[in-house]
Amino acid sequence: MIVAEAKPLEEIADLLGEVRKILVVGCGGCVTVCLAGGEKEVGIIAAALRMMYKKNGKELETLEVTLTRQCDPEYVEMLEKYITDDVDCILSLACGVGVQFLAERYNKWVVPALNTKFAGGTIEHGVWEERCGLCGECILHKTGGICPIIRCSKSILNGPCGGSQNGRCEVNKDIPCAWQLIYDRLKALNKLELLLEIQPPKDWSKARDGGPRKVVREDVRIE
Amino acid sequence: MSWKAGSKLEKLLSQGHFVVTGEVGPPKHASPDGILRHAELLKDYVDAINLTDNQTAIVRMSSIAAGVHVLRAGCEPIIQMTVRDRNRIALQSDLLGAYSLGIRNVLCLSGDHQSFGNHPTAKNVHDVDSIQLIRIVKDLRDEKRFACGEEIKEHEPRFFIGAAANPFADPFEFRVLRLEKKINAGADFIQTQCIFDMERFERFMAMVRERGLHKKAYILAGVTPLKSARAARYMQQSVAGMIVPEEIINRMEKAKDPKAEGVAICVEQIKHLRTIEGVAGVHIMAIMWEDIIPTIVKEAGLYPRPQAE
Q: Could you give the residue range(s) of every CATH 3.40.50 domain in chain A?
């Protein structure tokens, strides 16, 4: 999932500035799962903002809606009935994708309430960790299911570098060395020969820098 | 004899001389005076000088520019090149430039992570890794091709290619295999991380000989003279990929003159390294203490230096 984290409340209030009525929009997708932007968080952030404005002697009205997904026009459409003239601003609790989908559809000022962090998963309740670098060309079959692109601090493809010691990365003792993990895993699977092959430079053109990437599936397109 | 690059370093190694290389860190300013002084001081005591490439990710004069100053002072440079700050386009461009300026040796490295340096918020590049860079430099020379496969029609850069090896990093048993990978990628010579744990280095070299790697590339053993017990302790505890045994720290602590003891330890290490089969030379990394190199070389019985034929 896409893991996100709420911006500090003071920062959100700062971004909103002089507003009287805002639409606080949650997302039922990834950010609900990572407890950052679901229905519950919409309620909490809206209430906290109202209190904050009140304390400063200002009135703030909040409308609260949570869409099934903000990254899907079908659901974004359902917001239309709430977009009235007196709404000064939309506060989106989605990832950066959702924020943009709202901004593209409605002629309103949209403010992000979250910082979008990474593609990852839940390690334990309340802890999420990055797993995928979204590089566009998966090589996990060569590395024992451990991604060196995102889990190695240098994204090395022929690791480990000379800074790996006691299974830890040179950057920080709290970071496991991805290449130690890869080595241990391939050794256990009796596939160490995979590491002896020189991996050629990666095709980063599949990763980024060419404008927004697009996936087109002709077989499921309509028309 | 036809040379791969024809550098003095390549000639001395292939003629069987026990080679001595030193290291100079380029300055955090734009004057060549310090480098010229060091090159002047070292030129009769080492066969070539490494110029580090923004080591510990701190902005310094470029290793190529510093290498040209070393060359002007009559000494042979080994420029270090990391993949942290440049993509494959910039790396190859700088290799062409360095060769055009007379540089003939390049050491290919991944580079210290930017979080250690003075620009920790910088974006790292890591478009290619150190092994891929070795292959790129080799292909420029031997295949006369750029990394994309395009032919170099004339004047290909012909470098003597170096790589680093760290026998003190983990997983230990994979270190020799990774060294082999670097040699297979095209490394002609190897400079190791500084050695304090001699027992572990000997085990490493035994594995190197078992796989015949010492016959495929020249291995220069890295040494660093210690200035104080505190410096030794710092290396032991805070420098990634380094092992400093307690015994060495004890010796430094007990010494009346720690600097002299540091030199004595270093000289002992060099004399011992010379006896290890497969060690083709030493690389003396006297960090912020370059002036001590002539003393070490003399006391280790490695002076005068041979001339390349």
A: 2-118
* Residue B71 near residue B104, CB atoms below 8 Å: no
For residues A198-208, give the mean pLDDT: 91
Q: What is the pLDDT of residue A181?
A: 98
> Is residue A9 within 8 Å of A41, Cβ to Cβ?
no
A171 and B115 in contact by Cβ < 8 A? yes
The C-alpha atoms of residue A170 and residue A160 are separated, in whole angstroms, by 11
- Given a cut of 90, is residue B66 above it in pLDDT? yes
Under the banding of pLDDT at 50, 70 and 90, the label for residue B121 is very high
What are the structure tokens assigned to A56, written together?
Answer: 């400063």
Find the helix or strand (DSSP H, E) in which A30 lies. helix A30-33
pLDDT surpasses 80 at B235 = yes
Bigger pLDDT: B124 vs A71 = A71
Q: Could you identify the residue written with the tokens 């430039």?
A: B97
Rounded CA-CA distance B80/B137 in Å is 13
User: Under CATH, what is the fold of the domain B8-299?
Assistant: TIM Barrel (3.20.20)
Tell me the C-alpha to C-alpha distance, in Å, between residue B162 and each of A41, A156, B9, B105, B304: 56, 18, 11, 7, 24
Q: Is the pLDDT of residue B286 over 90?
A: yes
The nearest alpha carbon in chain B to A154 belongs to: B126
Transcribe B18-62 into DSSP letters. Answer: -EEEEEEPPPSSS--HHHHHHHHHHTTT-SEEEE-SSGGG---S-
Give the A-side interface with B, CB within 8 Å: 153-167, 170-172, 177, 180, 183-184, 195-196, 198-202, 204
> Residue A196: which of B112, B130, B181 has the nearest Cβ?
B181
Fold classification of A2-118 is: Rossmann fold (3.40.50)
Q: How many residues does chain A have?
A: 223
- When CB atoms are compared, the residue of A155, A161, A198 closest to B185 is A198
